[in-house]
Amino acid sequence: MSHLEFGSGVPGCATDGVWLTCIECGETFDPFAAVRYTCDDCGGLLEVRYADLPTWGDFGGRGVWRYADALPFEVGVTLPEGDTPLHEVPRLEEGVGVDRLRIKHEGMNPTGSFKDRGMTVGVRVAERVGVDRLACASTGNTSAALAAYGARAGLETLVLLPQGKVAAGKVAQASLHGAHILEVDGNFDTCLDIVQDLAARGEAYLLNSLNPFRLEGQKTIGLEILEQFRREEGAYPDRVVLPVGNAGNTAALYKCFRELVDDVETRATAIRIGNPVNAPKALPGIRETDGTAVAVSDDAITRAQRDLAEEGVGVEPASAASVAGLRKLREEGVVDTDERVVCLTTGHLLKDPDAAVEAGAEPDPVPGSTGGVLDHLA
Questions:
Q1: Is residue 256 within 8 Å of 59, Cβ to Cβ?
Q2: What is the residue range of 253's domain?
Q3: Is residue 241 in some structural domain?
Q4: Quick one: angle between helices 220-233 and 248-259, nearest 10?
C-alpha cells in the first residue's frame, strides 16, 4: 500500500482508515457512525477518502472485490460482479477511424448493467449502518440492481418509478427480485425528491448515485479498463469515452485515476444524455484529464447501437452514446486517428427489448418450403 492523501492528514473521525469529505467545504465525517449523503454544514457532495491507497501489486482475486484494497471493505454483498469483457471491434474501429478501439461492456454484469458495481458496495454499507429498508428512484437499471442486491442481503427494497417511463424489462427484473415498486405520478426528479425525503426521515437508505459509496464500486470499472488494456496493448488507453446520465461514472473514473500512484494520463470524455447530479465531482475530472463533453442525437445513438450489434456486442440505446460520441469527436477532429480509445457501454441489449425491436429490421415473410427460402436468398 502507498500512503497518499488529498489534503492534510487522516482526520480523527476516520474508521479503519476511511472517512467522508465534503468536496465543497472540506468538512470530514465518520463514514459509518451516522447515515449521511451530503455535507451537514453546506449541503455539498461527499467523497470517500482513504488513509492508504493501493498500487497494482496490492490487487488479487477476481471481480470488483479484486480491488478490495481500494474499497471500504474486504468484501461486499456480491453476486459476483465485475470482470466484464473488453471487446475488440475491428470493423467499427476502421469505420470510426482510430488505431485502437475497445468496448468495455458493462452489460455483462449480473443484472445487466454497471449499476451492480455500485450496489455491491452500497448495500454492504447499508448492512454496516444497520438499516432495514433500501430505496431508490429509477428509470430502470438502478431499480433492477438494487432489487437484486437487496434480495441477496435479505433487506426490504423500495423502488419509485416515474409512471409509464420505464422499460418493461427493467420493471420486471425489480419485481421478480421482490422489490416493492411504486409508480409515481411525476418524472424522475419527483421520484428522487420523495426518496430523499424518506431517507431524511430515516425511513429508508438511499442508494441513488448521490450516495458516495456507490461511486466506490463504480470506480473499479476504471481499474479494470486500465489493467485489461495494458495487458493487451502494453499501455494505458489515451481516452475513455462514456455516456453520462447523473455523471456518476465520470466522477468514479476520475477518482480511480486520481487515487492510483501510477502516472495515468487517460482522458475522460463524457457524452451527455441527461442533467448530471454528480456534475460537481465529474466536471473537474473532465477538465483535469484534458477531456471534453459533447451531446449526440437519438439518430446517432441508434446508428451506434446497430454498429455495435453488427460486431456481436448487444447494448441498450443509452450505452451506445459513447460510440456515437466518439464518431462525432473524430469527425470534428477532437480525437486523433492514432489514439487508443475505450468506449464504455453501460447496459445490455435485453434491458430495453422494445428499443431493440425498433432499431432492428422486420422479419421477411417466405413460403413454408425449402424452395421458398432458397428463392428468397437468391
A1: no
A2: 64-68+75-112+215-359
A3: yes
A4: 60
pLDDT for 281-325, tens place per residue?
656 656 666 667 788 999 999 999 999 999 999 999 989 999 999
Q: Which grid cell sits at 182?
A: 411504486
Residue 65 has a CB neighbour count (10 Å cut-off) of: 21
Greatest extent of the chain over all pairs of C-alpha atoms, in Å: 80
Share of residues in the chain with pLDDT > 70 (%): 89
Q: Which residues, 6+ apart, have CB-to-CB distance to 204 below 8 Å? A: 131, 133, 134, 135, 158, 195, 198
- At residue 341, the 3 state secondary structure works out as strand
The C-alpha torsion from 293 through 115 and 197 to 11, rounded to 10°, is: -80
Same domain, 337 and 224: yes
Q: Name the residue with cell 470493423.
A: 91
Element (H, E) at 124: helix 115-129
Would you tell me the crossing angle of helices 279-288 and 248-259 to the nearest 10 degrees? 50
pLDDT tens digits along 192-243: 999 999 999 999 999 998 999 999 999 999 999 999 999 999 999 999 999 8
261 and 311 share one domain:
yes
In contact, 241 and 293? CB cutoff 8 Å: no
Q: CA 327 to CA 123: how far, in whole Å?
A: 37
80 and 124 housed in the same domain: no
Whichever domain contains 170, its CATH number is 3.40.50.1100
| Residue 130 neighbours by CB distance under 10 Å | 9
Instruction: Please state whether the predicted TM-score (pTM) of the whole model is above 0.85.
Output: yes
Q: Residue 374 domain-assigned?
A: no
One domain, residues 184 and 251: no
Is position 244 within any domain? yes
354 burial via Cβ count (<10 Å: 0-12, 13-18, 19+): exposed
Total number of domains in the chain: 3
Strand pairing category for 133-137 and 156-162: parallel
